Amino acid sequence: MQVRRLWAAVAASSMAVVGAVAVIGLNSTAEAAVGGTGTGYLSTRGNQIIDAGGNPVRLTGLNWFGMETDNKTFHGLWARPWRDHIDQMASLGYNTLRVPFSEDALKPGATANSVDGYTNPDLQGLTPLQILDKVVAYAGTKGMRILLDRHRPTSAGQSALWYVSATPEATWISNWRSLAQHYANNPTVVGADLHNEPHADGTDPNGTGSCWGCGDVNRDWRLAAERAGNAILEVNPNWLIVVEGVSCTSGGNANAWDNIPDEPCGWWGGNLSKAGQFPVRLNKPNKLVYSAHEYGNSVYHQAWFDDPAFPNNLPAIWDGFWGYLEKQNIAPVLVGEFGSTLQSPQDVLWLKKLMEYMGTGVTGMDFTYWSWNPNSGDTGGIVADDWKTVNQQKQSILQPYLIPPVGQTGPTGSTSASASASTSSNPGTVSCTATVRIDNAWQGGYQATITVKNTGSTTVSPFVITWGVPSGVVLQSGWNATVAQSGTTITATGPSWAPSLAPGASVSIGFTANGPSTPPPSNIKLNGVACT
Q1: pLDDT tens-digit profile of 90-100?
Q2: CA distances from 406 to 9, 277, 501 (A)
Q3: pTM value?
Q4: Which is the catalytic residue, given 31, 68, 103, 197?
Q5: What residue range is the signal peptide (predicted)?
Q6: How far apart are CA 359 and CA 97, in angstroms?
Q7: What distance in Å separates the CA atoms of residue 23 and residue 141, rounded to the nearest whole number?
Q8: Which run of H or of E encompasses 369?
Q9: Is 68 annotated in the active site?
């Protein structure tokens, strides 16, 4: 069970770390597909992440943990094929995977365990890093991005500082450089979340944990992030450097018994209140992304949950801890972890307010939800204990804010959905193939994916895909396109960020609807031409 720790009390946590890495050769030249994650390597401009062409990108993803634990690889590989996990994530609209890992998973001789041989025979005998390579390669074909998260120095647990006796700072930096070199030619892997949830230890004024701006070389997380970030950029200048906050900027927990006013403290990794005054200084400033963690009352009871103005008091709290960095155009903020079981009505209000605060569309704040896994003890997951059934309550809140990936739906390589060929609106030049997949069904509704491939020789721009549904089926939501319904016809129009479908390219349109899933959608057409 994953548990999360907070600044004020022993609660719990669920992240991981990176270790000594044996560099393995990897064919990794394919670029990420056009869409929610853009093309090529990522950088920043003001408070926006941008792709290689300068186009705005929004990372809207989730965490898939396990590499930070004793299993040393992704959880759920005992339950279903590994590709199925990624297929479902992409079909739901998540474009990024934050991958927690620990030092132990990447040491020479590390062995992955709890991988079912019948379900995942192709993973048998592979090292944790080799399994990660396969996940990276396949996620890239979906147009997804990967963010590596050094979650723990060992699988035994998290640490307040970025180093422990078994993993000194020099080892931490060396291991990051090895990972950066390992994925240097693969733009699917976008960067390094340097250390998960640095936080206070001891009590103020005698704190021994991570501080921000205190100037102590052994405790100032901001200075350590500069050392590691610049060392990584020396070997891989294309990576984003993701720097989390602390909990209490002094590095010591609040002491309620000394009658001395205490500084505001936040979640572990969630306090960036001094990053404006003491910014992280990288040799490549356009590679810096700040990151905060944020949780609901059921995870730990913070004082602000008692405010009579809740949840309308929350935006001011977030502004002070990390939101100001985006609002003042200082740097992008990635909310790297947030989640809840949503069993408490108060948590539902919290999550809805947080999503509203981060904003819609490609210019909204970046985020990775905690977590895909159902076995996170304090939050549960997007999927239930069967590792397949979607928690519709969570998904329906997150769905309007997701920027789905755009990529090929098979493992044959990444396909750009943008057009380099000439554009045509003449339906006579169009041909296509189509498939329908019912991803999930429940009493009174279902979720499906329509995949269309342009088999013609001319780019279709903008693409317009239509399909028929039985009378009584009512569209509820759609993604990867602008989706609307008229009578028994549903129309999906290419979105502004990826309006074109090039020859040989595929696009997958996901949607949910009320009504029966049988008979399934039919009569699929691309710009008026029936697909086979």
Answers
A1: 999 999 999 99
A2: 42, 38, 11
A3: 0.74
A4: 197
A5: 1-32
A6: 20
A7: 22
A8: strand 366-369
A9: no
